[in-house]
């Protein structure tokens, strides 16, 4: 009987610490395949403004002003490396500039975007390089795809980065050990208008076209890796936000609402795949089941994400034949 051990992660959002833990994960969890189900890059560029001329015998010749969402701190030369490491661990992209460089960034959205993408690719190259080296030694493959928060340049970079270890799956179907992995990293519309969003109708049409590449007799071994989770499940419940994007609290509790894709659910009901692997909704790790029209209970899984805390959330899945035999939710 075919057997496959899968480690699912998602939404690392550029956290160097989370990527570091991903590169080490296979030391502790014996996996055949690791699936990274979208949102590879972080969300913020952090300028560190160098102010020369503030000489101090103890602190060096420069000080730096670091502004993280309005929290401005002054650091010296000796502290700079640690500040940069802490920012990268949280998924931010620090860039050291002088005052003129900062003013140039502040006056040009295009300059900010170009700098942001350049730093994203540099960081991703470093993080994926570590993963690739260690996974190659262990004989493990990483199936990965960009998510809705990743720019098109990142999606293009991931395709170029393909190797014997790093397997891009976005809008593609890859067969491994008799199982078909179908990847789709876009999401349906969000309040934040992220770079890779599509309508429900478009999502369904594009995924359905990919499913058409799989022989109907093999759908029982089709694994959907779709960034957006299916609607009205335990794994698509996000915190409800008001018009100012603040959590809605009632009775001392933050309200939740279902934000997953109705099309993803409909596709699972229609085609009855082996299972669905998802991400996108960080606060809804877990597993649920969708009953397909064929009467099969299809497991759908979201590993969740705590990337900003440097935590790697994982789902460890053991597949035998055309069923999920066992699963574990992990936090490292």
Query: Tally of extended strands?
Result: 20
Task: Return the structural class.
Answer: alpha/beta
Quote the beta fraction.
25-35%
- Outline type: globular
Q: How many alpha or pi helices? A: 7
Q: How far apart, in Å, are the first and last alpha carbons? A: 31 Å
* Biggest sheet character: 6 strands, mixed
CA-based gyration radius: 21 Å
- The level of helicity is 25-40%
Return the average pLDDT rounded to an integer: 92
Q: Give the strand order of the largest sheet, numbering strands 1, 2, ... along the chain.
A: 8-7-2-1-19-20
Question: Uncertain runs with pLDDT below 50, 5 residues or more?
Answer: 53-61
SSE series? EHEEEEHEHHEHEEEHEEEEEHEEEEE
How would you explain this protein's 3D organization?
The protein starts with a strand and ends with a strand. It has helices at residues 16-25, 77-89, 99-106, 109-138, 152-160, 200-211, 262-271; strands at residues 3-9, 33-37, 44-56, 60-68, 71-76, 92-97, 141-145, 166-168, 172-176, 179-184, 222-226, 237-239, 249-250, 253-254, 256-258, 275-278, 286-291, 297-302, 313-320, 323-331. The chain has seven helices and 20 strands.
Structural topology:
Layout: E1 3-9, H1 16-25, E2 33-37, E3 44-56, E4 60-68, E5 71-76, H2 77-89, E6 92-97, H3 99-106, H4 109-138, E7 141-145, H5 152-160, E8 166-168, E9 172-176, E10 179-184, H6 200-211, E11 222-226, E12 237-239, E13 249-250, E14 253-254, E15 256-258, H7 262-271, E16 275-278, E17 286-291, E18 297-302, E19 313-320, E20 323-331
Parallel strand pairs: 1-2, 2-7, 3-6, 7-8, 10-11, 11-16, 16-18
Antiparallel strand pairs: 1-19, 3-4, 4-5, 9-10, 12-15, 13-14, 17-18, 19-20
């Amino acid at each position: 009987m075919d057997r496959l051990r899968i480690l699912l992660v998602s939404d690392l959002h550029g956290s160097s610490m989370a990527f570091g833990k991903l590169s080490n994960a296979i030391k502790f969890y014996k996996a055949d395949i690791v699936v990274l189900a979208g949102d590879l890059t972080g969300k913020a560029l952090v300028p560190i403004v160098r102010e020369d001329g503030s000489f101090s015998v103890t602190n060096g010749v420069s000080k730096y002003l670091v502004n993280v969402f309005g929290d401005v701190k002054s650091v010296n030369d000796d502290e700079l490396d640690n500040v940069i490491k802490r920012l990268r661990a949280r998924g931010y992209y620090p860039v050291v500039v002088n005052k003129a460089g900062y003013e140039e960034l502040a006056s040009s959205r295009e300059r900010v975007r170009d700098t942001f993408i350049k730093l994203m690719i540099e960081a991703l190259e470093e993080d994926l390089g570590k993963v690739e080296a260690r996974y190659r030694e262990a004989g493990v493959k990483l199936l990965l795809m960009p998510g809705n928060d990743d720019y098109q340049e990142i999606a293009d970079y991931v395709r170029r980065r393909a190797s014997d270890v790093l397997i891009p799956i976005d809008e593609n179907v890859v067969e491994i050990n008799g199982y078909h992995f179908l990847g789709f990293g876009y999401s349906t519309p969000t309040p934040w208008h992220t770079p890779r969003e599509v309508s429900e109708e478009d999502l369904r049409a594009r995924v359905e076209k990919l499913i058409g590449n799989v022989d109907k007799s093999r759908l029982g071994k089709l694994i959907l890796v779709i960034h957006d989770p299916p609607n009205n499940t335990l794994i698509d419940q996000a915190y409800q936000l008001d018009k100012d994007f603040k959590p809605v609290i009632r009775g001392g509790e933050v309200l939740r609402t279902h934000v997953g894709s109705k099309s993803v659910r409909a596709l699972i009901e229609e085609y009855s795949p082996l299972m669905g692997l998802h991400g996108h909704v960080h606060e809804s790790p877990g597993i649920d089941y969708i009953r397909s029209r064929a009467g099969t209970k299809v497991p759908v899984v979201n590993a969740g994400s705590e990337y900003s805390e440097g935590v790697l959330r994982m789902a460890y899945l053991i597949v035998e034949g055309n069923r999920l035999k066992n699963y574990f939710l992990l936090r490292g």
